[in-house]
Write a structure and sequence with these properties.
The chain is of the alpha+beta class. The chain is built from five helices and nine strands; from the N terminus they run E-E-H-H-H-E-E-H-E-E-E-E-H-E. 30% of the residues lie in helices and 25% in strands.
């Protein structure tokens, strides 16, 4: 697996993140509905350099997820965990996420196969964000998402997902 972080649009467009999520937004602002000037103004308003993982990053990423429908995807090898932050986990976003993992893991002639280091048993934590608060958390595995099985459990708010303002290491 070459990348361990992605942005997925509400239409299912997958953008690999070579470094950190905010860096991709800052380098390609138009793709995310911003201009270079608007990105610079947001960072300046917080007294931060462009690309800094601080308050401006949190503001921009929260806007992209809650208002624009983007999904932030990260993988941590240490925990063998995929974390997905999105606005709402519904049938449409579940299909988009399932398609994403099918692309990464692969499905050939009805049989699942592993590409790279993505594993079928890897845990997937899905966190819904509403006004900056993680409201509902779902837990499943890559296998369940790719196969379309009903193995997703919902959990009440707690410590299942990292907070948006806490960067998650992608190695």
């Amino acid at each position: 697996m070459k990348y361990r972080a992605y942005w997925i649009s509400g239409q299912g467009d997958i953008l690999p993140v070579p470094t950190i999520h905010i860096d991709l937004v800052a380098k390609h602002p138009k793709r995310f509905g911003y201009t270079r000037g608007s990105i610079e103004r947001i960072f300046a308003a917080h007294g931060e350099p462009v690309g800094h993982e601080g308050f401006a990053r949190q503001e921009i990423m929260l806007h992209l997820i809650v208002n624009e429908g983007w999904m932030r995807v990260r993988y941590t090898r240490k925990n063998d965990l995929w974390a997905i932050e999105l606005k709402s986990f519904d049938e449409r976003t579940q299909r988009i996420i399932s398609d994403f993992f099918t692309m990464i893991v692969g499905s050939h002639a009805g049989r699942l196969s592993v590409r790279g280091t993505a594993q079928l048993h890897s845990e997937v934590r899905i966190c819904e964000l509403h006004d900056g608060n993680q409201v509902v958390r779902h837990s499943t595995t890559v296998r369940e998402l790719v196969s379309g099985r009903e193995g997703i459990t919902s959990r009440s708010p707690g410590s299942l997902c990292a907070r948006l303002e806490d960067p998650l290491v992608t190695d």
